[in-house]
Amino acid sequence: MPYDRPTLNALLRRHGIAPTHQRLEIAQVLFARCQHLSAEQILQQVNERHAETSKATVYNTLNLFRDRGLVREVIVDPKRVFYDPNTGPHHHLYNVDTGEITDIPADALRLSGLPELPAGMVTEGVDVIVRVRSAGTSALG
Amino acid sequence: MPYDRPTLNALLRRHGIAPTHQRLEIAQVLFARCQHLSAEQILQQVNERHAETSKATVYNTLNLFRDRGLVREVIVDPKRVFYDPNTGPHHHLYNVDTGEITDIPADALRLSGLPELPAGMVTEGVDVIVRVRSAGTSALG
DNA sequence: TGTCCATTGAGAATTATTCTAATTCACCCT
DNA sequence: AGGGTGAATTAGAATAATTCTCAATGGACA
Ligand SMILES: [Mn+2]
Ligand SMILES: [Mn+2]
Ligand SMILES: [Zn+2]
Ligand SMILES: [Zn+2]
Hints:
The structure is a homodimer.
Chain A: H1 5-14, H2 21-32, E1 37-38, H3 39-46, H4 55-67, E2 72-77, E3 80-84, E4 90-95, E5 101-105, E6 110-112, E7 121-134
Bound molecules: manganese (II) ion (MN) (2 copies) and zinc ion (2 copies).
Chain B binds a DNA duplex through residues 18, 20-23, 38-40, 53-57, 59-60, 63, 78-81.
């Protein structure tokens, strides 16, 4: 268990985040099993045992974590944002049928020939999304 | 003007879409200037001269066009979907400050080493999104 | 113990998209 | 031309993710 309370506590502090009870609970959910979760899923998992965190706090906290670089957003589904505790460079496999998101390690995939940017632009990141579906599922009706 | 009415008419028919007045107007907006537009932007442009198309029809039509492969969705902004009349393989440059989306030709960018998929999955597409921001704009407050 | 400021949270607001159910329209037949 | 028919359109309501408001809470510390 690499992510016990003292570790999470230090992690938040290191990112300039005051480690409140609710924030630790949310960090726990995110970092314990390193998955890609929506705000709604996080809300449910945090309140699994007994309800103690509000929806507003989950959204506040996720935006705070994102602003401080603790998590990143994964934009693959127009319906909801997913939160990724892995902020290192890597990419994603997205199953459009199941909604499942899987990491692709950065070094598993070579990207070459990025076009030079117009003057005055700076790259913030390069996202690669491999969209897959379960074989047999057709895009047509 | 490569996209006059008879051409659009044939284009819709070729995709199995009955070419109604509203659908032609929407196709016109999408294909005339080949941009990446949101439903709201399309609704405005279609009704620029005189209002004749409803919001419901714009959404219906965009979903129909997407299902029939006439346009593709671009998922870069959690707030809204953008529609792309270019369905050929290519990638996108997304300015997170301005919201501007620019095409990157497929051959401008080499991708190698896609991991083999778990059995029973088939690739639907690979999206590369280069997120840029105007230099000087910071992610922090 | 009391002040202070950040945090929390209930519920309302916002907004992109979808849904419903009724009207309109295009096209065909006579 | 007039009428039947199914598809298309639409106004407005519904849905749902996210944000906002602002009052209540609570920990740190004098
Ligand atoms: Mn957000
Ligand atoms: Mn859609
Ligand atoms: Zn990831
Ligand atoms: Zn494009």
